[in-house]
Design goal:
Blueprint (H helix, E strand, L loop, with lengths): L1 H27 L9 H29 L4 H24 L5 H28 L6
Length: about 130
């Protein structure tokens, strides 16, 4: 259930991003779309980017956990994902342009997805006796 800890933490971040979009919709009186408001468009993009990457990363971490990864490996993946997503939210949430937070956050997230993908494939290979345990 280590993945559950990080899913819960990221769930709280998801709620915060959702509330931020709702607040922007109320503030700018826009029900659907962005109303061509750059601040609202940015809020929606930050929320959308989170939803594009966090679920796949968590799903892969869960598969690695089911495959028997050590608690240290799972915490490393989960903590890196949380830090990556927070940095990305901070970086992109401040500006639609390039930023260190956005770049580092994206890089960390992609590293987690890559490492967990490798772990999931290795776990599958072990489960079907294609790789040594």
């Amino acid at each position: 259930m280590i993945t559950g800890l990080y899913a819960g933490i990221l769930g709280f971040l998801y709620i915060a991003l959702t509330v931020r979009v709702i607040h922007g919709r109320w503030k700018y009186r826009v029900g659907i779309g962005t109303g061509q408001n750059p601040d609202l468009a940015l809020r929606i993009r930050v929320h959308g980017n989170f939803m594009e990457f966090a679920p796949i990363a968590l799903g892969l971490i869960a598969l690695v956990e089911i495959g028997g990864a050590s608690p240290a490996q799972l915490h490393a993946l989960g903590a890196t994902l949380v830090i990556g997503r927070l940095l990305h939210v901070w970086g992109l949430g401040r500006s639609a342009g390039t930023s260190a937070g956005r770049m580092i956050g994206t890089t960390l997230t992609q590293l987690v997805i890559f490492a967990a993908s490798v772990g999931a494939v290795v776990a599958w290979c072990q489960a079907v006796n294609l790789a040594p345990n």
